[in-house]
Design brief:
disordered C terminus, mainly alpha, 196 residues, rod-shaped
Length: 196
């Protein structure tokens, strides 16, 4: 716009020189044209100044608005960054808490598994011991049954050989059972025997 104005000014001055060169008598008509040109030139200059002032005002307003927009954008971006940081911090806290709880749960599961294995091992040992005791008791009972059967056979043989012993007393059966190892021997008597 400045270059256009300069070209226009140069054109006006060129026309003024041409008019002055054509009419050196300076008649009123030439003066009138020159005055019109000067008035027109002054109007153009004033319009140019007004336009430049308006442009400057518009530019300043645009710059203020742009600065306000940039400030608002910066504020929004900072607020978004703060919120994002808060969300990330909360996510990290939740993740760490979840990891701690998971680790604690895994430790409890491992402890429960170990205790279960210990209990199962104890149950297995108890089962083996019970089976061994049952087998031992069964064998013992079978041996005692065999001894009782021998005692009964011996009683039958004795009764057959000596009918007087057919009705054996309880004491005699116990004595015979102890001799055969069926019954435990009597406990030792306490105290000292007196010499008779």
């Amino acid at each position: 716009m400045d270059e256009g104005g300069s070209a226009k000014d140069r054109r006006i001055r060129e026309l003024e020189r041409q008019l002055e060169a054509k009419d050196s008598t300076r008649n009123p008509f030439v003066y009138s044209n020159q005055e019109q040109l000067r008035v027109k030139d002054q109007q153009l200059k004033e319009e140019k100044e007004v336009a430049n002032a308006e442009k400057a005002t518009i530019r300043e307003e645009a710059n203020r608005r742009l600065e306000a927009v940039n400030t608002e954008k910066t504020t929004i971006r900072e607020e978004a960054d703060r919120r994002l940081e808060a969300v990330n911090t909360e996510k990290t806290t939740i993740r760490e808490e979840a990891d701690r709880r998971l680790e604690a749960a895994n430790a409890e599961i491992a402890e429960a598994t170990r205790r279960h294995q210990d209990v199962m091992g104890e149950l297995q040992s108890t089962r083996i011991e019970l089976q061994s005791e049952i087998q031992f008791t069964r064998d013992t009972l079978q041996r005692q049954i065999a001894k009782l059967e021998r005692l009964l056979r011996w009683k039958s043989i004795t009764s057959t050989r000596n009918p007087a012993h057919e009705n054996l007393t309880h004491k005699f059966i116990i004595s015979a059972g102890r001799k055969l190892g069926i019954f435990a021997p009597p406990p030792p008597t306490s105290g000292r025997r007196h010499a008779g």
